[in-house]
Amino acid sequence: MNRSEHGADAVDPHYERRWLILLVVLISQVMILIDATVINVALPSAQKSLHFSDAARQWVVTAYVLAFGSLLPLGGRLADLVGRKLMFVVGLVGFGVFSALAGAAPDTAVLLIARTLQGVFAAALAPTAVSMITVTFTDPTERNKAFAVFGAVGGSAGALGLLLGGVLTSSLDWRWTMFVNIAFAAVALVGALALMTNSADPHRPRLDLPGALLASGGLFLLVFGSAKAETDGWSAPLTVASLAGGILLLLGFVGVERRAPHPLIPLRVVLDRNRGAAYLSLLLGSASLFALFLFLTYYFQGILGYSPIRTGLAFLPLPVGIAVGATVAQSVLLPRLTARSIIGGGLSLSAAGAALLAQVGLHAEYASRVLPGLVLVGAGVGAYFVIATTIGSVPDDPEDAGTAGSMNNVSQQIGTALGVALISTFVASATSGYLHSHGPAGPLVLARASVHGYAVGFWWGAAVFAITAVVCTAMIRPRTTLAATASPPVPEPVSQTL
């Protein structure tokens, strides 16, 4: 047993169960990430069942993202203050309860309320899961392995959600895409109660309420404005007002945090060059990945005529690529290369994959045109994601573990919302331009216009991946290696039981 293990045993009697704790954390993470995509496949069936409009259909997804993205900083800080096990359990119970309500929803209003409250409890659960890994795995080598597994599973869960959604919707009913969360939550809850300790900051500083209001309000307006931009356009008054208001509130948040005695997000967490680059790569990488994800879904079903189940199967090379990329990055590349090399290389590989996807056509062969791009995107995402997540999750002060974990999730959620909205406008513009220049909009012209628009979206995804690779490579300190990262001390747990 090494020194860090002895140190961990001194404060945590459950340290020997760390790999089982990781399994519990993974179950919760899979539940959250699958929920973000499984509903997409089920939406047509849900719309037919509950008779809601196309406009309301968008808000079934957006309501969840709004609550989740805007409350993540608060959820991460509360985990540091009141205890990680407590917040983890509260998040699991709340998410499971409101998943049940969403599945049983008798009308649109109940479904939207349930989806919003799912997002609230996801914001409590997600950053706590990341910080739990940080404080449980004190040995740097083991922590890197844990985050490699976490990154591979996290990066793959969204694609697997499409397959699960297709299977559940086709074989049972759309409501089971919500009910399935109850099983995940129940298993994770049993594991959390048996294995985890309620570690938190022993000094219990006061919550920064002004910072919480400004951060949550600013993030809410940014996500809301992005959602409105996707439907109403970037120049619409409500879109402009929401985005401008969000930026102003976040600027005010920075000013408040600089003077706050107990800031919601200590600026030291985000201003560090390495962590800043990690958060930026997660933000912009998620923007590209989920835009590709969205337009490939449209391409598979709308152009190639795939069923929901076949669409999920078509995406499987992506999670396989992510798992392989994460494993190779952790076991082969980390001992030999610097963090900037792995992150820059992974993002560049994803850019190449997105550029290959931009070559798809009206009657593209999946094996020759789609499969290679999916594999490259997945391998690149797996490599950079696991390194960026690790860097972003390990603060200089262990009392900031929940906050650092929340910033990983905030980066991904805001990046997804902004990226899908922004790239969607480029796709819509390219599609309209093609229709305008190619005469009457018959079925064949409409299909070609759609494919042209998707190709433009893939090119934009490739460009964002490539630009992110250059910027983040420049930001990360040249000789940063995770194998040599110092292990922060584990804070004394507030209590040993919940």
Task: Give a written overview of the molecule.
By secondary structure, the chain is mainly α. The chain folds into 2 domains: 3-207 and 264-489, Growth Hormone, Chain: A, CATH 1.20.1250; 208-263. 80% of the residues lie in helices and 1% in strands. It has 17 helices and 2 strands. It has helices at 3-11, 18-50, 54-82, 84-103, 108-136, 140-171, 176-195, 209-232, 237-259, 267-271, 273-303, 308-315, 317-333, 339-357, 366-393, 401-437, 443-475, and strands at 198-199, 493-495. α8 packs parallel to α16.
Give a short summary of the structure.
With 498 residues, the chain is mainly α.
Question: How would you describe the shape?
Answer: globular
Main beta sheet strand tally, sense and closure: 2 strands, antiparallel
Rg, rounded, reads: 22 Å
Uncertain spans, ≥5 residues at pLDDT below 50?
1-11, 484-498
Descriptive terms for the model:
single chain; 498 residues; mainly alpha; Growth Hormone, Chain: A; two-stranded antiparallel ribbon; 2 strands; disordered N terminus; disordered C terminus
SSE layout:
Elements: H1 3-11, H2 18-50, H3 54-82, H4 84-103, H5 108-136, H6 140-171, H7 176-195, E1 198-199, H8 209-232, H9 237-259, H10 267-271, H11 273-303, H12 308-315, H13 317-333, H14 339-357, H15 366-393, H16 401-437, H17 443-475, E2 493-495
Antiparallel strand pairs: 1-2
